[in-house]
């Protein structure tokens, strides 16, 4: 921690102490106490270390339960210095009513924001509990991920842990992950995030010097086309060709394919496409869309009716069975779990596979062609992306 109480009960900070001699003098002056639990703390300062206070061993302070790395301390300090030039801000503010300490508490007009710079993983339930506690106190939580945790696989391709997805914030239509690197003094944003699988996602990775940003820039919305369609297509094609070799027929996904006389290599290209809201589903698109397809329109002949409620029921049934898993997104307050399903149904409607007769009532207009050979699957896939490229780049 960067703040503590001295023997007079006044808050003192270490980040603005300019000399090592002054730090040594402060250590000799007397005792310091945690502003949250009142237990005694000691000053830690060494070579290439951010001077800070630390609890003594076996401390049970609930507000400072995590050890803080130099990376975290420096990032917290940089963010505080940045935001305090724009709005009134308090470093390591303790909020008694929720017994929680914010890295930085910001007052912007009549709104309060709690900035949490998180560099290490914490249990999901702790993340959610802290978020909900802030909201219950009328404080808007702003979680910023340590950029060192972002695992880049290649150009615009990332491996995101389950924990990283908790940082997804903004609207359900266009969320992003905000990260910060104190060593490079830059803020980063992952936006246009399109997951291909539970961990692998495509995203735009933008960097901004912290000095050139305002606090309100953290909440700026991103929009535009899906810029990774060709990469998505390559990954989808590779999955189709190679996935069957390692298929576990005890897996309900493969079992469902077998029951419906389908194989990974000959799945129609209409299954496994990027749709709006896809980030809300943890299950890979090719899996959850195959369930929706086989459970609704696959067996229906042209001209047969299909209701929106059938799509919804199929989706919810698969969620209940654990075949489709939704992501836990505590920072997106207004979200509809049906949003990605509506995106997929909208695709089927726009491409003419179904047509709407009245609200919520469709009929099958044309059947999805099921390839019978790998060669036919390749040809159908090529034609599919040629015809529907603009539609799949939704927003174009």
Automatic annotation (TrEMBL):
Pfam families: CoiA_C (PF25166), CoiA_N (PF25164), CoiA_nuc (PF06054)
Domain Competence protein CoiA nuclease-like residue range list: 68-222
Listed transmembrane segments: none
Competence protein CoiA C-terminal domain boundaries: 231-376
Domain Competence protein CoiA-like N-terminal residue range list: 18-63
Record-linked InterPro entries: CoiA-like_N, CoiA_C, CoiA_nuc, Competence-induced_CoiA
Official protein name in the record: Competence protein CoiA
Species in which this protein is naturally found: Peribacillus glennii
């Amino acid at each position: 921690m960067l703040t503590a109480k001295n023997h007079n009960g006044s808050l003192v900070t270490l980040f603005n102490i300019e000399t090592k001699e002054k730090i040594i003098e402060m250590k000799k002056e007397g005792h310091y106490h945690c502003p949250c639990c009142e237990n005694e703390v000691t000053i830690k300062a060494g070579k290439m270390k951010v001077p800070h206070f630390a609890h003594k061993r076996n401390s049970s302070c609930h507000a400072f339960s995590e050890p803080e790395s130099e990376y975290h301390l420096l990032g917290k300090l940089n963010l505080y210095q940045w935001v305090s030039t724009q709005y009134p801000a308090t470093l390591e503010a303790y909020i008694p009513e929720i017994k929680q300490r914010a890295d930085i508490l910001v007052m912007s007009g009549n709104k309060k924001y709690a900035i949490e710079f998180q560099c290490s993983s914490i249990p999901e339930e702790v993340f959610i509990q802290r978020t909900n506690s802030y909201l219950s106190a009328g404080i808007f939580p702003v979680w910023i991920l340590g950029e060192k945790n972002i695992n880049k696989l290649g150009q615009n391709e990332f491996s995101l842990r389950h924990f990283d997805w908790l940082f997804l914030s903004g609207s359900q239509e266009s969320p992003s992950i905000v990260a910060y690197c104190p060593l490079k003094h830059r803020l980063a944003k992952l936006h246009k995030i399109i997951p291909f699988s539970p961990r692998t996602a495509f995203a735009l990775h933008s960097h901004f010097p912290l000095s050139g940003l305002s606090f309100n820039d953290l909440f700026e919305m991103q929009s535009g086309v899906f810029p990774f369609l060709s990469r998505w297509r390559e990954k989808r094609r590779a999955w189709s060709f190679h996935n069957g070799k390692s298929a576990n027929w005890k897996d309900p996904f493969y079992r469902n394919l077998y029951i419906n006389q389908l194989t990974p290599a000959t799945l129609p290209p209409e299954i496994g496409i990027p749709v709006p809201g896809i980030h809300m589903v943890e299950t890979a698109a090719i899996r959850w869309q195959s369930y929706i397809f086989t459970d609704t329109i696959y067996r229906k002949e042209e001209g047969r009716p299909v209701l929106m409620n059938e799509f919804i029921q199929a989706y919810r049934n698969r969620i209940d069975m654990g075949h489709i898993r939704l992501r836990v997104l505590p920072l997106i307050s207004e979200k509809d779990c049906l949003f990605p399903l509506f995106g997929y149904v909208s695709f089927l409607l726009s491409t003419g596979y179904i047509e709407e007769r009245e609200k919520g009532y469709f009929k099958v207009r044309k059947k999805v062609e099921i390839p019978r050979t790998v060669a036919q699957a390749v040809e159908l896939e090529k034609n599919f992306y040629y015809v529907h490229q603009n539609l799949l780049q939704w927003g174009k």
